[in-house]
Specification:
With 198 residues, the chain is an all-alpha fold. It has six helices and no strands. The chain is globular and about 80 Å long.
């Protein structure tokens, strides 16, 4: 009987939650896994991950700007823009996930936390407060322009490096969606009479 009790006391605890844990990083931001079963070299993958992380930071910022404007939009076009901004936010969520997964697939580490993204993005931060609709849209258009230029630069670099997967992602997944979103919101800044033609 005593031996059975001592065995029970030495058994592992599989029910208690171990919430206070810490450890060293297992992979530093900017490093790539060297020995990866992938035909691209570690140098090429590292270069691609660096550019992809910049695109990721800018896409996260654009995504969050859409949600900010979705919440804060006001005026006669409230309903249309409220829905459109949320639709574009959802599409940007997909883009962000696609870019992040490509970075991880190439053996890199994704930028992920808001504070880190804010330090790295090239998109200027809007004020915390509410802005008029034309300013909201102008900010979104400028952000799209930055993301689209990053896509073009990344696509060229990926093509030169022989990374067709990243090239395809930059053009097919990110660039084309951002072009469409930019077109949709840009037309809200065209001055057009609403009820009587001039």
């Amino acid at each position: 009987m005593a031996s059975k009790t001592s065995k029970q006391s030495k058994s592992k605890d599989f029910v208690t939650e171990h919430t206070k844990q810490s450890a060293r990083e297992i992979q530093k931001y900017g490093d790539v896994v060297r020995d990866l079963p992938h035909p691209l070299s570690a140098k090429v993958r590292g270069d691609m991950c660096k550019q992809l992380n910049q695109l990721l930071a800018d896409s996260i910022t654009l995504r969050d700007m859409y949600k900010k404007h979705h919440w804060q939009v006001a005026g006669p076009t409230f309903y249309q823009l409220h829905l459109l901004f949320d639709k574009h936010f959802d599409e940007q969520v997909e883009i962000v996930d696609t870019i992040a997964e490509r970075i991880q697939l190439l053996g890199g580490v994704t930028i992920a936390m808001g504070g880190d993204v804010a330090k790295q993005t090239k998109i200027p931060a809007p004020p915390i407060g509410r802005e008029e609709v034309p300013v909201q849209i102008a900010r979104l258009l400028e952000a799209h322009k930055i993301v689209m230029q990053a896509c073009l630069d990344l696509a060229d670099a990926a093509d030169d490096a022989g990374d067709q997967g990243t090239n395809d992602l930059a053009v097919s997944d990110v660039l084309r969606t951002n072009e469409l979103q930019s077109w949709f919101i840009g037309n809200h800044l065209v001055e057009m009479p609403l009820t009587t033609a001039e």
